[in-house]
Amino acid sequence: MPNRSRRQFLLWGALSLGVLALVIVLVVAAPAGNPAWRSANGGGGTPAADLPLTGTDYPVPPGAILVSPTGKDGAPGTADQPLRSVAAAIALVAPGGTVVMRGGTYRESVGLVKKRITLQPYPGEHVWLKGSLVVSTWARAGKAWRHDGWTTDLCQNCFTPQIIDPEHPLAGSPDMAFVNGKPLRQVGSAGEVGPGTFFVDSAAKALFVGDDPNGKLVEATVFDRFLQFDTNSGGSVLRGIGVAQYGSNQDYGKRGAMVVVNAPDVTIENATFAWSASSGLAVFQPGGKVTGGSFRNNGLVGLVANRADDLRLTGNSFTANNQERFSLSGEAIGAGGAKLTRTKRPYVADNSFVDNIGNGWWCDLGCTDATVIRNVARGNAVNGLYYEVSSRALIASNVMSGNAARGLKISSSDHVRVYQNTFAGNGTTLGLYNDKRGPESDPYSKQLGLSWRTDNVTLVNNLYAGTDATRPIVESADYKASPAANPAFVSSSDGNAYFRSTQGNKAPLVIWVRGAGQSTEYGSLAEFSQGTGSDTHSLALDTSPFTDPANGDYTLRPGSPCLKAGRPLPADVATALGVPATATPDIGALPPKR
Protein backbone atom coordinates (compact mmCIF):
# COMPACT_ATOMS: atom_id res chain seq x y z
CA MET A 1 0.00 0.00 0.00
CA PRO A 2 1.22 3.50 -0.65
CA ASN A 3 2.54 5.69 2.12
CA ARG A 4 0.21 8.34 3.47
CA SER A 5 1.42 11.67 2.19
CA ARG A 6 -0.23 15.05 1.81
CA ARG A 7 0.28 14.75 -1.90
CA GLN A 8 -0.32 11.02 -2.18
CA PHE A 9 -1.60 10.62 -5.70
CA LEU A 10 -2.65 7.03 -5.24
CA LEU A 11 -5.19 8.04 -2.64
CA TRP A 12 -7.09 10.38 -4.97
CA GLY A 13 -10.51 9.00 -5.66
CA ALA A 14 -10.10 6.22 -3.09
CA LEU A 15 -13.05 5.23 -0.97
CA SER A 16 -13.19 4.48 2.74
CA LEU A 17 -13.50 0.70 2.69
CA GLY A 18 -14.59 -1.44 5.61
CA VAL A 19 -14.99 -5.14 6.17
CA LEU A 20 -18.65 -5.82 6.73
CA ALA A 21 -20.41 -8.95 7.93
CA LEU A 22 -23.50 -10.07 6.03
CA VAL A 23 -26.75 -11.11 7.61
CA ILE A 24 -27.98 -13.87 5.34
CA VAL A 25 -31.75 -13.86 5.04
CA LEU A 26 -33.77 -15.73 2.43
CA VAL A 27 -36.41 -13.30 1.24
CA VAL A 28 -38.02 -15.12 -1.70
CA ALA A 29 -38.78 -18.74 -2.34
CA ALA A 30 -36.60 -20.63 -4.80
CA PRO A 31 -37.92 -20.77 -8.34
CA ALA A 32 -37.95 -24.01 -10.26
CA GLY A 33 -34.25 -23.70 -10.89
CA ASN A 34 -30.87 -22.46 -9.72
CA PRO A 35 -27.24 -21.88 -11.07
CA ALA A 36 -23.70 -21.16 -9.84
CA TRP A 37 -20.42 -19.20 -10.17
CA ARG A 38 -16.90 -19.82 -11.15
CA SER A 39 -13.84 -17.64 -11.06
CA ALA A 40 -11.40 -18.56 -13.80
CA ASN A 41 -8.52 -17.77 -11.47
CA GLY A 42 -9.34 -20.76 -9.33
CA GLY A 43 -11.80 -19.06 -7.03
CA GLY A 44 -9.71 -16.04 -6.18
CA GLY A 45 -10.82 -12.47 -5.53
CA THR A 46 -12.53 -10.92 -2.56
CA PRO A 47 -15.31 -12.93 -0.89
CA ALA A 48 -18.66 -11.16 -0.80
CA ALA A 49 -18.59 -10.92 2.99
CA ASP A 50 -15.44 -8.81 2.79
CA LEU A 51 -16.68 -6.31 0.21
CA PRO A 52 -17.25 -2.70 1.22
CA LEU A 53 -20.52 -0.88 1.74
CA THR A 54 -20.68 2.84 2.37
CA GLY A 55 -23.25 5.56 2.80
CA THR A 56 -25.65 3.73 5.08
CA ASP A 57 -26.72 6.81 7.06
CA TYR A 58 -29.34 8.23 4.72
CA PRO A 59 -32.32 9.61 6.68
CA VAL A 60 -35.73 7.98 6.30
CA PRO A 61 -38.04 10.50 4.62
CA PRO A 62 -41.70 10.85 5.64
CA GLY A 63 -43.94 8.43 3.79
CA ALA A 64 -41.14 6.00 2.90
CA ILE A 65 -42.06 2.38 2.24
CA LEU A 66 -40.04 0.04 4.46
CA VAL A 67 -38.87 -3.48 3.70
CA SER A 68 -37.45 -6.02 6.13
CA PRO A 69 -36.34 -9.67 5.95
CA THR A 70 -38.84 -10.26 8.77
CA GLY A 71 -41.63 -8.33 7.05
CA LYS A 72 -44.66 -9.59 5.18
CA ASP A 73 -45.76 -8.78 1.64
CA GLY A 74 -49.25 -7.33 1.81
CA ALA A 75 -48.35 -5.21 4.83
CA PRO A 76 -48.62 -1.39 4.54
CA GLY A 77 -44.83 -0.93 4.46
CA THR A 78 -44.61 1.13 7.63
CA ALA A 79 -41.86 1.01 10.23
CA ASP A 80 -43.82 -1.42 12.41
CA GLN A 81 -45.38 -3.34 9.50
CA PRO A 82 -42.74 -3.56 6.77
CA LEU A 83 -42.97 -5.49 3.54
CA ARG A 84 -40.74 -8.46 2.94
CA SER A 85 -39.63 -8.07 -0.69
CA VAL A 86 -38.14 -5.15 -2.56
CA ALA A 87 -40.37 -5.93 -5.52
CA ALA A 88 -43.51 -5.52 -3.38
CA ALA A 89 -42.20 -2.24 -1.98
CA ILE A 90 -41.45 -0.83 -5.44
CA ALA A 91 -44.92 -1.83 -6.58
CA LEU A 92 -46.45 0.01 -3.60
CA VAL A 93 -44.34 3.17 -3.45
CA ALA A 94 -45.76 6.26 -5.14
CA PRO A 95 -43.81 7.91 -8.00
CA GLY A 96 -41.10 10.06 -6.47
CA GLY A 97 -41.21 8.06 -3.23
CA THR A 98 -38.50 6.20 -1.30
CA VAL A 99 -38.06 2.51 -0.50
CA VAL A 100 -35.99 1.93 2.64
CA MET A 101 -34.55 -1.54 3.29
CA ARG A 102 -33.70 -2.84 6.76
CA GLY A 103 -30.40 -4.65 7.09
CA GLY A 104 -29.99 -8.12 5.62
CA THR A 105 -29.69 -9.99 2.36
CA TYR A 106 -32.53 -9.96 -0.16
CA ARG A 107 -32.50 -12.58 -2.90
CA GLU A 108 -34.79 -11.52 -5.72
CA SER A 109 -35.15 -10.00 -9.17
CA VAL A 110 -37.35 -6.93 -9.42
CA GLY A 111 -37.43 -6.56 -13.20
CA LEU A 112 -38.42 -3.24 -14.80
CA VAL A 113 -38.90 -0.11 -12.69
CA LYS A 114 -41.26 2.30 -14.47
CA LYS A 115 -41.52 5.21 -12.05
CA ARG A 116 -39.08 7.54 -10.35
CA ILE A 117 -38.01 6.13 -6.97
CA THR A 118 -35.21 6.27 -4.44
CA LEU A 119 -33.88 2.96 -3.14
CA GLN A 120 -31.68 3.05 -0.01
CA PRO A 121 -30.79 1.22 3.23
CA TYR A 122 -32.02 2.04 6.70
CA PRO A 123 -29.56 4.32 8.55
CA GLY A 124 -26.58 2.40 9.90
CA GLU A 125 -27.65 -0.93 8.40
CA HIS A 126 -26.06 -2.97 5.61
CA VAL A 127 -28.16 -4.27 2.76
CA TRP A 128 -27.21 -6.74 0.03
CA LEU A 129 -29.23 -7.73 -3.01
CA LYS A 130 -28.10 -11.13 -4.27
CA GLY A 131 -28.92 -13.12 -7.34
CA SER A 132 -28.15 -16.39 -5.60
CA LEU A 133 -30.07 -18.77 -3.33
CA VAL A 134 -28.86 -20.76 -0.36
CA VAL A 135 -28.47 -24.45 -1.23
CA SER A 136 -28.67 -26.69 1.83
CA THR A 137 -29.51 -30.27 0.77
CA TRP A 138 -26.50 -32.32 -0.35
CA ALA A 139 -25.52 -35.93 -0.88
CA ARG A 140 -22.01 -37.32 -1.27
CA ALA A 141 -21.24 -38.33 -4.89
CA GLY A 142 -17.76 -39.84 -5.10
CA LYS A 143 -15.25 -37.06 -4.46
CA ALA A 144 -17.93 -34.38 -4.83
CA TRP A 145 -21.26 -33.40 -3.25
CA ARG A 146 -24.48 -33.34 -5.28
CA HIS A 147 -27.68 -31.30 -5.02
CA ASP A 148 -30.61 -32.57 -7.12
CA GLY A 149 -33.49 -30.64 -8.66
CA TRP A 150 -31.28 -27.81 -9.84
CA THR A 151 -32.58 -25.88 -12.87
CA THR A 152 -32.44 -22.23 -13.87
CA ASP A 153 -33.68 -19.89 -16.57
CA LEU A 154 -30.29 -18.24 -17.05
CA CYS A 155 -29.29 -17.73 -20.67
CA GLN A 156 -26.40 -20.02 -21.54
CA ASN A 157 -25.60 -18.61 -24.99
CA CYS A 158 -26.09 -14.86 -24.58
CA PHE A 159 -22.56 -13.85 -25.51
CA THR A 160 -20.45 -13.15 -28.57
CA PRO A 161 -18.42 -16.31 -29.24
CA GLN A 162 -15.41 -14.27 -30.40
CA ILE A 163 -14.84 -12.86 -26.92
CA ILE A 164 -14.34 -16.27 -25.32
CA ASP A 165 -10.71 -17.11 -24.62
CA PRO A 166 -10.11 -20.78 -25.57
CA GLU A 167 -8.23 -21.23 -22.31
CA HIS A 168 -11.39 -20.21 -20.43
CA PRO A 169 -14.23 -21.74 -22.47
CA LEU A 170 -16.85 -21.35 -19.73
CA ALA A 171 -16.44 -17.57 -19.40
CA GLY A 172 -19.79 -16.93 -21.10
CA SER A 173 -21.74 -19.17 -18.76
CA PRO A 174 -23.76 -17.23 -16.15
CA ASP A 175 -23.62 -20.03 -13.57
CA MET A 176 -21.90 -19.21 -10.27
CA ALA A 177 -21.46 -20.90 -6.89
CA PHE A 178 -19.95 -19.70 -3.61
CA VAL A 179 -18.93 -21.41 -0.39
CA ASN A 180 -18.76 -19.12 2.63
CA GLY A 181 -18.60 -16.18 0.21
CA LYS A 182 -15.66 -17.57 -1.77
CA PRO A 183 -16.34 -18.18 -5.48
CA LEU A 184 -15.82 -21.62 -6.93
CA ARG A 185 -14.36 -22.25 -10.38
CA GLN A 186 -16.73 -23.83 -12.90
CA VAL A 187 -15.61 -27.01 -14.67
CA GLY A 188 -17.09 -28.80 -17.65
CA SER A 189 -17.99 -32.20 -16.20
CA ALA A 190 -18.78 -33.95 -12.94
CA GLY A 191 -15.53 -35.92 -13.23
CA GLU A 192 -13.50 -32.71 -13.09
CA VAL A 193 -15.03 -31.51 -9.82
CA GLY A 194 -12.52 -31.14 -7.01
CA PRO A 195 -11.77 -28.70 -4.20
CA GLY A 196 -12.62 -25.12 -5.18
CA THR A 197 -14.73 -26.09 -8.20
CA PHE A 198 -18.33 -26.78 -9.20
CA PHE A 199 -20.32 -28.21 -12.12
CA VAL A 200 -23.90 -27.77 -13.30
CA ASP A 201 -25.38 -30.84 -14.99
CA SER A 202 -28.36 -29.32 -16.80
CA ALA A 203 -29.57 -32.63 -18.23
CA ALA A 204 -29.60 -34.33 -14.84
CA LYS A 205 -30.78 -31.16 -13.05
CA ALA A 206 -27.93 -31.44 -10.57
CA LEU A 207 -25.38 -29.12 -8.98
CA PHE A 208 -22.01 -30.51 -7.89
CA VAL A 209 -19.46 -28.84 -5.60
CA GLY A 210 -16.00 -30.06 -4.69
CA ASP A 211 -15.89 -28.52 -1.19
CA ASP A 212 -17.65 -30.19 1.72
CA PRO A 213 -20.81 -28.07 2.09
CA ASN A 214 -21.77 -29.33 5.53
CA GLY A 215 -21.89 -26.52 8.07
CA LYS A 216 -21.09 -23.93 5.38
CA LEU A 217 -23.04 -21.30 3.51
CA VAL A 218 -23.41 -22.48 -0.09
CA GLU A 219 -24.92 -20.00 -2.54
CA ALA A 220 -25.70 -20.57 -6.21
CA THR A 221 -26.91 -18.03 -8.76
CA VAL A 222 -30.44 -18.16 -10.11
CA PHE A 223 -31.37 -14.55 -11.06
CA ASP A 224 -29.82 -12.67 -13.98
CA ARG A 225 -30.37 -9.09 -12.74
CA PHE A 226 -31.66 -7.11 -9.81
CA LEU A 227 -33.55 -4.38 -11.67
CA GLN A 228 -33.69 -2.14 -14.70
CA PHE A 229 -34.64 1.52 -14.47
CA ASP A 230 -36.87 1.94 -17.49
CA THR A 231 -39.74 4.04 -18.89
CA ASN A 232 -40.79 6.93 -16.62
CA SER A 233 -38.10 6.16 -14.03
CA GLY A 234 -35.82 9.08 -14.96
CA GLY A 235 -34.34 10.83 -11.96
CA SER A 236 -34.33 7.69 -9.80
CA VAL A 237 -31.66 7.11 -7.15
CA LEU A 238 -30.05 3.88 -5.95
CA ARG A 239 -27.65 4.38 -3.05
CA GLY A 240 -25.83 2.75 -0.19
CA ILE A 241 -26.53 -0.91 -1.05
CA GLY A 242 -24.58 -3.89 -2.36
CA VAL A 243 -25.53 -5.93 -5.42
CA ALA A 244 -23.80 -9.25 -6.00
CA GLN A 245 -23.90 -12.75 -7.48
CA TYR A 246 -26.36 -12.11 -10.32
CA GLY A 247 -25.94 -14.16 -13.50
CA SER A 248 -25.82 -11.24 -15.93
CA ASN A 249 -24.75 -12.09 -19.46
CA GLN A 250 -22.64 -10.40 -22.12
CA ASP A 251 -25.54 -9.75 -24.50
CA TYR A 252 -26.57 -6.24 -23.43
CA GLY A 253 -29.93 -6.59 -25.14
CA LYS A 254 -30.72 -9.49 -22.82
CA ARG A 255 -30.11 -8.46 -19.21
CA GLY A 256 -26.43 -7.76 -19.55
CA ALA A 257 -25.82 -6.26 -16.09
CA MET A 258 -26.98 -6.70 -12.50
CA VAL A 259 -28.46 -3.17 -12.60
CA VAL A 260 -29.37 -1.58 -15.94
CA VAL A 261 -30.02 2.16 -16.26
CA ASN A 262 -32.28 2.64 -19.26
CA ALA A 263 -33.70 5.99 -18.11
CA PRO A 264 -32.16 9.48 -18.02
CA ASP A 265 -30.69 11.31 -15.04
CA VAL A 266 -30.40 8.30 -12.74
CA THR A 267 -27.99 8.52 -9.79
CA ILE A 268 -26.07 5.50 -8.48
CA GLU A 269 -24.32 6.53 -5.26
CA ASN A 270 -22.15 4.71 -2.71
CA ALA A 271 -23.16 1.29 -4.04
CA THR A 272 -21.11 -1.88 -4.44
CA PHE A 273 -21.36 -4.13 -7.51
CA ALA A 274 -19.52 -7.42 -7.09
CA TRP A 275 -19.28 -10.91 -8.51
CA SER A 276 -21.64 -10.59 -11.45
CA ALA A 277 -21.25 -13.20 -14.17
CA SER A 278 -20.71 -10.39 -16.69
CA SER A 279 -21.24 -6.68 -15.93
CA GLY A 280 -22.00 -4.98 -12.65
CA LEU A 281 -23.76 -1.81 -13.83
CA ALA A 282 -24.90 -0.70 -17.30
CA VAL A 283 -25.85 2.90 -18.17
CA PHE A 284 -27.65 3.38 -21.48
CA GLN A 285 -29.24 6.82 -21.12
CA PRO A 286 -27.89 10.39 -20.69
CA GLY A 287 -27.39 12.38 -17.53
CA GLY A 288 -26.36 9.51 -15.27
CA LYS A 289 -24.26 10.01 -12.15
CA VAL A 290 -22.20 7.18 -10.69
CA THR A 291 -20.30 8.28 -7.61
CA GLY A 292 -18.59 6.75 -4.59
CA GLY A 293 -19.12 3.19 -5.76
CA SER A 294 -17.08 0.00 -5.63
CA PHE A 295 -16.96 -2.32 -8.65
CA ARG A 296 -15.09 -5.49 -7.80
CA ASN A 297 -14.53 -8.99 -9.13
CA ASN A 298 -17.20 -8.80 -11.82
CA GLY A 299 -17.11 -11.44 -14.54
CA LEU A 300 -16.45 -9.15 -17.52
CA VAL A 301 -16.47 -5.47 -16.55
CA GLY A 302 -17.43 -3.34 -13.57
CA LEU A 303 -19.39 -0.73 -15.53
CA VAL A 304 -20.45 -0.46 -19.16
CA ALA A 305 -22.09 2.59 -20.76
CA ASN A 306 -23.39 3.42 -24.23
CA ARG A 307 -25.12 6.61 -25.45
CA ALA A 308 -24.74 7.84 -21.88
CA ASP A 309 -24.14 11.52 -22.70
CA ASP A 310 -22.91 13.69 -19.81
CA LEU A 311 -22.23 10.65 -17.65
CA ARG A 312 -20.40 11.67 -14.48
CA LEU A 313 -18.18 8.93 -13.12
CA THR A 314 -16.56 10.20 -9.92
CA GLY A 315 -14.91 8.82 -6.81
CA ASN A 316 -15.40 5.14 -7.65
CA SER A 317 -13.05 2.18 -7.37
CA PHE A 318 -12.83 -0.49 -10.07
CA THR A 319 -10.85 -3.50 -8.88
CA ALA A 320 -10.05 -7.00 -10.21
CA ASN A 321 -12.82 -7.16 -12.81
CA ASN A 322 -12.93 -9.75 -15.64
CA GLN A 323 -12.75 -12.64 -13.19
CA GLU A 324 -14.24 -14.86 -15.91
CA ARG A 325 -11.19 -14.23 -18.09
CA PHE A 326 -12.99 -13.08 -21.23
CA SER A 327 -10.59 -12.60 -24.12
CA LEU A 328 -8.31 -9.56 -24.09
CA SER A 329 -7.87 -9.51 -27.86
CA GLY A 330 -9.94 -9.69 -31.02
CA GLU A 331 -13.61 -8.90 -30.47
CA ALA A 332 -13.37 -8.31 -26.72
CA ILE A 333 -15.88 -5.61 -25.87
CA GLY A 334 -14.46 -4.10 -22.77
CA ALA A 335 -13.04 -6.56 -20.27
CA GLY A 336 -11.73 -4.69 -17.24
CA GLY A 337 -12.79 -1.79 -15.06
CA ALA A 338 -15.11 0.49 -17.05
CA LYS A 339 -16.01 0.65 -20.76
CA LEU A 340 -17.84 3.58 -22.41
CA THR A 341 -18.98 3.85 -26.02
CA ARG A 342 -20.73 6.49 -28.17
CA THR A 343 -20.93 8.92 -25.26
CA LYS A 344 -20.70 12.71 -25.43
CA ARG A 345 -19.03 14.73 -22.67
CA PRO A 346 -18.25 11.94 -20.18
CA TYR A 347 -16.67 13.29 -17.00
CA VAL A 348 -14.35 10.77 -15.33
CA ALA A 349 -12.63 12.10 -12.22
CA ASP A 350 -11.04 10.87 -8.99
CA ASN A 351 -11.59 7.17 -9.67
CA SER A 352 -9.22 4.27 -9.16
CA PHE A 353 -8.82 1.51 -11.76
CA VAL A 354 -6.66 -1.14 -10.12
CA ASP A 355 -5.67 -4.72 -10.98
CA ASN A 356 -8.36 -5.23 -13.59
CA ILE A 357 -7.82 -8.16 -15.94
CA GLY A 358 -8.11 -5.95 -19.00
CA ASN A 359 -8.11 -2.18 -19.43
CA GLY A 360 -8.64 0.08 -16.46
CA TRP A 361 -10.83 2.68 -18.24
CA TRP A 362 -11.74 2.59 -21.93
CA CYS A 363 -13.75 5.00 -24.13
CA ASP A 364 -14.46 3.67 -27.62
CA LEU A 365 -16.58 4.00 -30.77
CA GLY A 366 -17.24 7.70 -30.96
CA CYS A 367 -16.74 9.16 -27.50
CA THR A 368 -16.44 12.95 -27.74
CA ASP A 369 -15.33 15.77 -25.44
CA ALA A 370 -14.27 13.55 -22.58
CA THR A 371 -12.75 14.93 -19.38
CA VAL A 372 -10.52 12.34 -17.66
CA ILE A 373 -8.76 13.83 -14.65
CA ARG A 374 -7.14 12.88 -11.34
CA ASN A 375 -7.66 9.16 -11.74
CA VAL A 376 -5.34 6.34 -10.66
CA ALA A 377 -4.85 3.46 -13.10
CA ARG A 378 -2.55 0.84 -11.59
CA GLY A 379 -1.64 -2.77 -12.29
CA ASN A 380 -4.16 -3.41 -15.06
CA ALA A 381 -3.49 -6.33 -17.41
CA VAL A 382 -3.66 -4.21 -20.59
CA ASN A 383 -3.85 -0.40 -20.65
CA GLY A 384 -4.39 1.91 -17.70
CA LEU A 385 -6.46 4.45 -19.71
CA TYR A 386 -7.55 3.98 -23.33
CA TYR A 387 -9.15 6.48 -25.77
CA GLU A 388 -10.05 4.78 -29.04
CA VAL A 389 -11.69 5.85 -32.34
CA SER A 390 -13.03 8.94 -30.62
CA SER A 391 -12.50 12.70 -30.67
CA ARG A 392 -11.60 15.56 -28.34
CA ALA A 393 -10.57 14.82 -24.78
CA LEU A 394 -8.69 16.28 -21.84
CA ILE A 395 -6.65 13.58 -20.11
CA ALA A 396 -4.89 15.34 -17.25
CA SER A 397 -3.27 14.82 -13.86
CA ASN A 398 -3.78 11.07 -13.79
CA VAL A 399 -1.33 8.58 -12.28
CA MET A 400 -0.75 5.48 -14.41
CA SER A 401 1.60 2.88 -12.98
CA GLY A 402 2.42 -0.78 -13.48
CA ASN A 403 -0.01 -1.41 -16.33
CA ALA A 404 1.14 -4.35 -18.43
CA ALA A 405 0.66 -2.98 -21.95
CA ARG A 406 0.62 0.84 -21.69
CA GLY A 407 -0.11 3.56 -19.22
CA LEU A 408 -2.18 5.44 -21.81
CA LYS A 409 -3.23 4.33 -25.28
CA ILE A 410 -4.66 6.76 -27.83
CA SER A 411 -5.82 5.10 -31.04
CA SER A 412 -7.42 6.76 -34.08
CA SER A 413 -8.53 9.72 -31.96
CA ASP A 414 -7.99 13.40 -32.67
CA HIS A 415 -7.68 16.58 -30.62
CA VAL A 416 -6.68 14.80 -27.42
CA ARG A 417 -4.91 16.99 -24.85
CA VAL A 418 -2.63 15.07 -22.50
CA TYR A 419 -1.43 17.31 -19.64
CA GLN A 420 0.28 16.85 -16.31
CA ASN A 421 0.11 13.04 -16.08
CA THR A 422 2.50 10.81 -14.16
CA PHE A 423 3.53 7.51 -15.78
CA ALA A 424 5.61 4.98 -13.86
CA GLY A 425 6.64 1.41 -14.58
CA ASN A 426 4.16 0.63 -17.35
CA GLY A 427 5.02 -1.74 -20.20
CA THR A 428 5.08 1.07 -22.75
CA THR A 429 4.48 4.45 -21.21
CA LEU A 430 2.41 6.09 -23.94
CA GLY A 431 1.09 4.56 -27.16
CA LEU A 432 -0.21 6.58 -30.14
CA TYR A 433 -1.69 4.69 -33.09
CA ASN A 434 -3.93 4.65 -36.13
CA ASP A 435 -5.74 1.35 -36.51
CA LYS A 436 -6.99 -0.02 -39.83
CA ARG A 437 -10.68 0.86 -39.42
CA GLY A 438 -12.52 3.89 -40.75
CA PRO A 439 -15.64 5.56 -39.30
CA GLU A 440 -17.80 3.94 -42.00
CA SER A 441 -17.75 0.82 -39.79
CA ASP A 442 -19.74 2.66 -37.11
CA PRO A 443 -22.86 4.63 -38.25
CA TYR A 444 -22.81 6.71 -35.07
CA SER A 445 -19.25 7.93 -35.62
CA LYS A 446 -19.87 8.49 -39.31
CA GLN A 447 -22.93 10.62 -38.52
CA LEU A 448 -20.83 12.79 -36.21
CA GLY A 449 -18.21 13.25 -38.92
CA LEU A 450 -15.42 11.71 -36.85
CA SER A 451 -12.18 11.05 -38.69
CA TRP A 452 -10.95 8.03 -36.73
CA ARG A 453 -7.41 9.33 -37.23
CA THR A 454 -4.92 10.29 -34.58
CA ASP A 455 -4.23 13.97 -35.15
CA ASN A 456 -3.70 17.16 -33.14
CA VAL A 457 -2.61 15.41 -29.95
CA THR A 458 -1.02 17.68 -27.35
CA LEU A 459 1.53 16.27 -24.86
CA VAL A 460 2.54 18.79 -22.21
CA ASN A 461 4.07 18.57 -18.72
CA ASN A 462 3.87 14.78 -18.48
CA LEU A 463 6.32 12.77 -16.40
CA TYR A 464 7.33 9.60 -18.25
CA ALA A 465 9.17 7.03 -16.11
CA GLY A 466 9.84 3.69 -17.78
CA THR A 467 11.35 0.49 -16.41
CA ASP A 468 11.27 -1.96 -19.34
CA ALA A 469 14.50 -1.97 -21.36
CA THR A 470 12.78 -3.58 -24.34
CA ARG A 471 10.04 -0.96 -24.80
CA PRO A 472 10.13 2.70 -25.77
CA ILE A 473 8.79 5.47 -23.58
CA VAL A 474 6.57 6.70 -26.41
CA GLU A 475 5.53 4.33 -29.17
CA SER A 476 3.54 5.29 -32.25
CA ALA A 477 2.50 3.45 -35.39
CA ASP A 478 0.15 4.04 -38.32
CA TYR A 479 -1.74 0.97 -39.51
CA LYS A 480 -4.11 2.72 -41.91
CA ALA A 481 -4.20 1.42 -45.47
CA SER A 482 -2.73 4.68 -46.80
CA PRO A 483 -0.59 6.19 -44.04
CA ALA A 484 1.08 8.57 -46.48
CA ALA A 485 -2.18 10.52 -46.57
CA ASN A 486 -2.32 10.96 -42.80
CA PRO A 487 -1.17 14.00 -40.77
CA ALA A 488 1.34 13.90 -37.94
CA PHE A 489 -0.10 12.45 -34.75
CA VAL A 490 1.16 15.13 -32.37
CA SER A 491 0.78 18.87 -32.88
CA SER A 492 2.61 19.95 -29.71
CA SER A 493 4.88 18.20 -27.22
CA ASP A 494 6.89 20.07 -24.62
CA GLY A 495 7.63 20.46 -20.93
CA ASN A 496 7.75 16.71 -20.40
CA ALA A 497 10.29 14.70 -18.41
CA TYR A 498 11.77 11.37 -19.54
CA PHE A 499 13.32 8.88 -17.11
CA ARG A 500 14.50 5.35 -17.91
CA SER A 501 15.55 3.35 -14.89
CA THR A 502 17.06 0.42 -16.81
CA GLN A 503 20.60 0.13 -18.10
CA GLY A 504 21.48 -1.05 -21.60
CA ASN A 505 18.15 -0.13 -23.14
CA LYS A 506 17.42 -2.15 -26.24
CA ALA A 507 14.53 0.01 -27.43
CA PRO A 508 14.56 3.60 -28.65
CA LEU A 509 13.33 6.31 -26.32
CA VAL A 510 10.67 7.47 -28.77
CA ILE A 511 9.10 6.01 -31.93
CA TRP A 512 7.46 8.99 -33.60
CA VAL A 513 4.95 9.14 -36.47
CA ARG A 514 5.64 12.42 -38.25
CA GLY A 515 2.82 12.10 -40.78
CA ALA A 516 2.86 11.30 -44.50
CA GLY A 517 3.80 7.72 -43.66
CA GLN A 518 7.06 8.71 -41.93
CA SER A 519 8.03 7.01 -38.68
CA THR A 520 11.36 7.59 -36.98
CA GLU A 521 13.10 6.09 -33.94
CA TYR A 522 15.05 8.35 -31.58
CA GLY A 523 17.46 6.98 -29.01
CA SER A 524 17.62 10.04 -26.77
CA LEU A 525 15.69 13.19 -25.93
CA ALA A 526 18.39 15.30 -27.59
CA GLU A 527 18.03 13.34 -30.85
CA PHE A 528 14.25 13.55 -30.64
CA SER A 529 14.21 17.31 -30.07
CA GLN A 530 16.72 17.95 -32.81
CA GLY A 531 14.92 15.72 -35.28
CA THR A 532 11.37 16.96 -34.68
CA GLY A 533 11.62 20.38 -33.03
CA SER A 534 9.47 18.99 -30.22
CA ASP A 535 10.18 18.89 -26.47
CA THR A 536 12.71 21.71 -26.56
CA HIS A 537 11.94 22.52 -22.91
CA SER A 538 11.66 18.91 -21.77
CA LEU A 539 13.99 17.09 -19.35
CA ALA A 540 16.06 13.92 -19.62
CA LEU A 541 16.40 12.58 -16.06
CA ASP A 542 19.30 10.52 -14.75
CA THR A 543 17.71 9.56 -11.42
CA SER A 544 14.19 8.81 -10.27
CA PRO A 545 12.15 11.96 -9.63
CA PHE A 546 9.85 10.22 -7.13
CA THR A 547 9.78 10.22 -3.34
CA ASP A 548 9.21 6.50 -2.77
CA PRO A 549 8.11 4.64 -5.92
CA ALA A 550 8.71 1.22 -4.34
CA ASN A 551 5.80 1.96 -2.02
CA GLY A 552 3.65 3.71 -4.59
CA ASP A 553 4.49 7.28 -3.62
CA TYR A 554 4.93 9.15 -6.90
CA THR A 555 5.19 12.60 -5.40
CA LEU A 556 8.26 14.56 -6.50
CA ARG A 557 11.20 14.18 -4.15
CA PRO A 558 12.77 17.34 -2.70
CA GLY A 559 15.14 18.88 -5.21
CA SER A 560 13.67 17.04 -8.19
CA PRO A 561 14.37 18.89 -11.45
CA CYS A 562 10.68 18.42 -12.30
CA LEU A 563 9.64 20.96 -9.66
CA LYS A 564 8.36 24.15 -11.34
CA ALA A 565 9.81 22.99 -14.66
CA GLY A 566 6.61 22.66 -16.69
CA ARG A 567 5.28 24.86 -19.45
CA PRO A 568 2.52 27.40 -18.69
CA LEU A 569 -0.73 25.70 -17.75
CA PRO A 570 -3.72 26.79 -19.87
CA ALA A 571 -6.48 28.42 -17.88
CA ASP A 572 -9.16 25.91 -18.88
CA VAL A 573 -6.95 22.97 -17.91
CA ALA A 574 -6.15 24.58 -14.57
CA THR A 575 -9.84 25.22 -13.94
CA ALA A 576 -10.71 21.60 -14.73
CA LEU A 577 -8.03 20.38 -12.32
CA GLY A 578 -8.80 22.90 -9.60
CA VAL A 579 -5.26 24.32 -9.55
CA PRO A 580 -3.80 27.77 -10.29
CA ALA A 581 -2.97 28.56 -13.93
CA THR A 582 0.69 29.04 -13.10
CA ALA A 583 3.40 29.74 -15.68
CA THR A 584 5.74 27.20 -14.06
CA PRO A 585 3.81 24.17 -12.80
CA ASP A 586 5.54 21.02 -11.66
CA ILE A 587 5.88 18.28 -14.25
CA GLY A 588 3.56 15.34 -13.63
CA ALA A 589 0.24 14.95 -11.83
CA LEU A 590 -0.83 17.89 -9.71
CA PRO A 591 -2.73 17.54 -6.43
CA PRO A 592 -5.99 19.51 -6.38
CA LYS A 593 -5.96 22.75 -4.45
CA ARG A 594 -7.30 22.22 -0.93
Keywords:
50 strands; 13-stranded parallel sheet; 594 residues; disordered N terminus; mainly beta; 4 helices
Summarize the structure.
This protein is mainly beta and 594 residues long.
Number of strands: 50
Structural class: mainly beta
The largest β sheet comes out as: 13 strands, parallel
* Helicity, as a percent range: under 10%
The total of helices stands at 4
So what's the overall shape?
Answer: globular
Q: Roughly how many Å apart are the termini? A: 23 Å
Radius of gyration, whole Å: 25 Å
Determine the strand fraction and express it as a percent band.
25-35%
Mean pLDDT, as a whole number? Answer: 90
Low-confidence stretches: 1-44
Major β-sheet strand ordering = 1-2-5-17-20-23-26-29-32-35-38-41-44
Report on this model:
It is a single chain. The chain has 594 residues and is mostly beta strands. 5% of the residues lie in helices and 35% in strands. The chain contains four helices and 50 strands. A 13-stranded parallel β-sheet has the order 1-2-5-17-20-23-26-29-32-35-38-41-44, sandwiched between helices. A 13-stranded parallel β-sheet has the order 3-6-18-21-24-27-30-33-36-39-42-45-48, with no helix packed on it. A hairpin with a 2-residue loop joins strand 10 and strand 11. The chain is globular, with a radius of gyration of 25 Å.
